[in-house]
């Protein structure tokens, strides 16, 4: 279907008709893919499981949720990676996956502190896995008993945080709120109009390059689920289950095959959506570490998780733009340009995100649920 057919279908009510059909035939057959966000930890008597119910809500690359928790040892949690949930093309050295683990660890410690539990955390207790992750543990957390410290104030934002990939409101970011964000460890940012315009162009160029790198683009397409039934069956990855998306899928306009094919309406409109998202950025924040060790990556993930909660406390939303920071060959020009612009004195930019105010209220991203993340008990 070309663009003229797309306009004819929308204008003629074809999508509305498809939406009616989708409501009947594509309604979820299984559990609510967002149930994990509803009163997490309710009914759990093991404080480890209760805290993990919050930890699994952390932001993570492509929403792959690759963490697995071993609870066999009383008073201890050991986290492993599920190597079936990696991104081998766009994240060839598992750097982004490790950053995601940093977010989980930040949320886990925050929840344990909320419940008055002191902890001892050891990252990569059996050594760092290089160049790729293996079966060695990512982290081991020991519960030490009563904690004589107040709860973390950011915990109250955990259920309201969202990754907003849509266009942002035409509203300048409050300067005092932004300064508060930049007080976070390893965090830098800009609201300067000239720098923001330059970064808009670079992040979109990274997205454009990825879309025209077949293996990289296909990796994202394969992890995209369209329509309520498909998302309910796959509560992970990139979910497109808004009513209009479900309707366009039912009408045959928005399918994985079309998304993967340059020149189709689905492919072109996806790029147009990304361009609009980039153009509505009101500012950018980034996290830089001195090196690129696994410990650096964990630290970056912890910083990003806390930064996103701090942003939420100010009514702001964030959206990571990771394409230009990825390590596959076609991204090198953007990678080099970003590092020259944002880290001229050296270091590794681990995260780059646009920031602004949301235009609409968002639903949270699907989660597989606690039971799916428990390796052994």
Description of the molecule:
The protein is α+β, with helices and mostly antiparallel strands. The protein folds into 2 domains: 35-156, NADH Oxidase; 175-356, NADH Oxidase. The protein contains 14 helices and 11 strands. The protein has helices at 3-11, 14-25, 47-55, 95-114, 175-182, 193-211, 214-222, 228-233, 243-250, 256-259, 265-279, 294-313, 332-342, 370-373; strands at residues 67-70, 76-81, 117-123, 139-146, 187-190, 224-226, 238-240, 283-289, 317-320, 348-356, 374-376. A 5-stranded mixed β-sheet has the order 3-4-2-1-11. Strand 6 (224-226), helix 8 and strand 7 (238-240) form a beta-alpha-beta unit. Helix 4 crosses helix 12 and helix 6 runs antiparallel to helix 11. 44% of the residues are buried.
What proportion strand?
15-25%
Main sheet makeup: 5 strands, mixed
Tally of separate domains: 2
C-alpha termini separation = 51 Å
Name the overall outline.
globular
Task: Write the SSE topology.
Layout lengths: L2 H9 L2 H12 L21 H9 L11 E4 L5 E6 L13 H20 L2 E7 L15 E8 L28 H8 L4 E4 L2 H19 L2 H9 L1 E3 L1 H6 L4 E3 L2 H8 L5 H4 L5 H15 L3 E7 L4 H20 L3 E4 L11 H11 L5 E9 L13 H4 E3 L1
Helix pairs in contact: 2-9, 3-4, 4-12, 6-11, 6-13
């Amino acid at each position: 279907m070309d663009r003229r057919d797309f306009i004819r279908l929308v204008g003629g009510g074809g999508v509305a008709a498809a939406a009616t059909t989708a409501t009947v035939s594509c309604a979820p057959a299984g559990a609510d893919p967002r149930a994990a966000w509803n009163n997490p930890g309710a009914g759990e008597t093991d404080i480890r499981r209760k805290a993990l119910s919050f930890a699994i809500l952390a932001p993570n690359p492509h929403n792959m949720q690759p963490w697995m928790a071993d609870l066999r040892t009383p008073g201890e949690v050991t986290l492993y990676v599920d190597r079936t949930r990696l991104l081998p093309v766009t994240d060839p050295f598992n750097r982004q996956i490790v950053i995601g683990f940093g977010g989980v660890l930040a949320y886990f410690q925050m929840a344990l502190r909320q419940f008055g539990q002191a902890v001892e955390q050891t990252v990569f207790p059996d050594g760092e896995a290089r160049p790729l992750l293996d079966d060695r543990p990512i982290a081991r957390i020991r519960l030490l008993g009563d904690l004589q410290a107040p709860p973390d104030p950011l915990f109250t934002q955990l259920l309201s945080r969202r990754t907003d990939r849509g266009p942002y409101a035409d509203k300048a970011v409050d300067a005092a709120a932004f300064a508060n964000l930049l007080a976070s460890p390893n965090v830098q940012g800009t609201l300067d109009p000239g720098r923001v315009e330059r970064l808009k162009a670079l992040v979109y160029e990274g997205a454009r390059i990825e879309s025209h790198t077949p293996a990289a683009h296909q990796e994202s397409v394969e992890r995209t689920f369209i329509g309520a039934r498909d998302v309910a069956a796959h509560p992970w990855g990139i979910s497109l289950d808004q009513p209009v998306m479900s309707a366009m899928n039912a009408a045959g306009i928005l399918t994985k095959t079309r998304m993967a094919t340059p020149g189709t309406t689905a492919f072109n409109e996806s790029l147009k959506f990304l361009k609009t998202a980039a153009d509505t950025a009101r500012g950018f924040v980034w996290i830089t570490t001195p090196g690129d060790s696994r410990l650096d990556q964990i630290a970056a993930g912890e910083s990003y998780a806390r930064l996103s909660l701090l942003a939420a406390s100010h009514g702001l939303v964030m959206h990571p733009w990771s394409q230009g920071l990825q390590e596959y060959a076609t991204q090198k020009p953007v990678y080099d340009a970003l590092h020259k612009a944002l880290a001229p004195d050296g270091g590794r930019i681990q995260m780059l995100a646009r920031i602004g105010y949301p235009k609409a209220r968002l639903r949270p991203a699907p989660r597989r649920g606690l039971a799916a993340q428990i390796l052994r008990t």
